[in-house]
Amino acid sequence: MWTVLLVEDEVFVRESVRRIVDWQSLGFNVIGEAGNGEEALGFIEQHLPDLIICDILMPKMNGVELLQRVRELEIGSRFIMLSCLSDFDYVRKALEYGASNYILKLSMNVQSLMDALVKVEVELSKQQASGLSIPPSRIDTQQQADTGHREVDKLISYMKENFRSMISLRMLAEHVSMDEKYISTLFKKKTGSNVIQFLHQLRIDEARRLLEQSNMTISEIGTQVGYENDNYFIKIFKRFTALTPNGYRSRTRLRGEVPSVKG
Question: Which residues carry this modification: 4-aspartylphosphate (predicted)?
């Protein structure tokens, strides 16, 4: 089931989009809503939705700016943009940044939305089949202890100590009193990884350790490493290891590495 975030400042429009489509029959599940781009960005960092249906003109951060920020973070979520007739320049920019489609609000109906969802479902399926949802190489978080840059090293130490808690790019930027966009670019330059991937790698490394060395349930392990939702934990674990947590544990046991008793 592909996950969806709805981003629209007009509550009526947001509720209409959510109500007019039988999401599950098309293979989608709406996991969240946001009223502006800033709110959406924090959610996207934490939950990595497969699809974002996003209004173009919004307060604080418009839809194109949100799409650009998501791409800078190297998050591959698909975007369907909602636009008015006067938004064409924004639509063009959104398509340049890789938006999958756009829908005019005035002509939006069940069929137009379903057509757009079917197109995205095909794109996501092809992406999954080609393995593009899995990071191309494993991030060695143990060798990133000293980059030679004080603020980046401070962020790494903070994430290693607090990865079990909710962390966002905004929180990290505030921790070192720097701009979000600048610290994101700097972190990538010094470590070769973006901030969100690094954080997920820390969590997945700990999850692997717990799967190997304990009898904790999958749900307990997910919560322990910072994922409140079981399905989301399983999705991220598979993205980084190409295995489900249960599959990883089974493979470990087949190798004779019997986990120790919990506690």
Answer: 55
SS (H, E, C) the chain: CEEEEEECCCHHHHHHHHHHCCCHHHCEEEEEEECCHHHHHHHHHHHCCCEEEEECCCCCCCHHHHHHHHHHCCCCCEEEEEECHHHHHHHHHHHHCCCCEEEEHHHCCHHHHHHHHHHHHHHHHHHHHHCCCCCCCCCCHHHCCCCCCHHHHHHHHHHHHHCCCCCCHHHHHHHCCCCHHHHHHHHHHHHCCCHHHHHHHHHHHHHHHHHHHCCCCHHHHHHHCCCCCHHHHHHHHHHHHCCCHHHHHHHHHHCCCCCCCCC
What's the pLDDT at 256? 60
Q: Would the pTM of this model clear 0.85, i.e. be above it?
A: no
* Contact present, 232 and 203 (Cβ < 8 Å): no
pLDDT tens digits along 193-230? 888 888 999 999 999 999 999 999 999 999 999 988 88
Question: pLDDT tens digits, residue range 156-182?
Answer: 999 999 999 888 888 888 999 988 888
For CATH 3.40.50.2300, list the domain ranges present in the chain: 2-130
Quick one: tokens of 64?
Answer: 């194109």
For domain 2-130, the question of CATH label 3.40.50.2300 is answered with yes
